[in-house]
Amino acid sequence: MSQTRDTITLLSQKLDAAARSTLAYAKKQGADRAKVSASCSIEKRLVVENKEFTLANTLESQKVGLGVHKDQKKGSASINNADERGLQQSVDDALALAKFSVADEFLVMPNASEAPKAKILPFMWTDRVTEISLGEIQEFTQAMLGRLTKDKRVAIDRLEVSTSCMWHGLYNSLGMHQTESQTSLSWSFMGMAVDGKEVSGFDYEGRSVYSWDLALDIAVKQCDEFSEKIVKNLRPGKGPSYKGPVLLSPRAVEEILLGTILYHASGGSVMDGKSQWGDKVGEQVVSKLIHISDDPHNSRFSGATSFDGDGLPTAPRILVKNGVLISHLHDCYTAKHCKTTSTATSGGPFSLVCAPGTTDLLKMMNARNELLVVDRFSGNIDPIKGDFSGVAKSSRLYKNGLDHGGVAETMIAGNLFDTLKNILSVSTVSEDISGAMQMPWMLVDGVSVSGS
Amino acid sequence: MAFKDILQHLVQRNSGYLELRWHKRISNSFLATKGRVDIANHSVTEGVGVRALIDGAWGFAATSDVSEAAIKRAIEQANANASLLAKARGFRHVELRKGKLSTQDFIGEGFAELQGMSIADKLGKVIELERNLATSSPRIHTARARYTEYLEEKAIVTSDGARCSMKIAQPEVSLSAIAEKDGQRATGGRGAGVSGGWSCLFRHPTLGNVIDDIAKTTIDLLDAKYPEGGRKKCILAPAVVGLLCHEAIGHTVEADFVKAGSIAAGKIGEDVASPLVTMADTGNESIAGYAVGNLPFDDEGVETENTIIIKDGKLASYLHNRESAAEFGVNPTGNARAWLFSDEPLIRMRNTYIVPGKSKLVDMISEIDDGYLIEGAGSGQADSNGEFMFGCSHVWEIKKGKKVNMLREATLSGIAFDVLKTVDAVSSEFQWDLGTGHCGKGQPAKVDAGGPYIRCEINIGGRQS
Question: What's the topology of domain B3-221?
Answer without folding.
Answer: PmbA/TldD fold (3.30.2290)
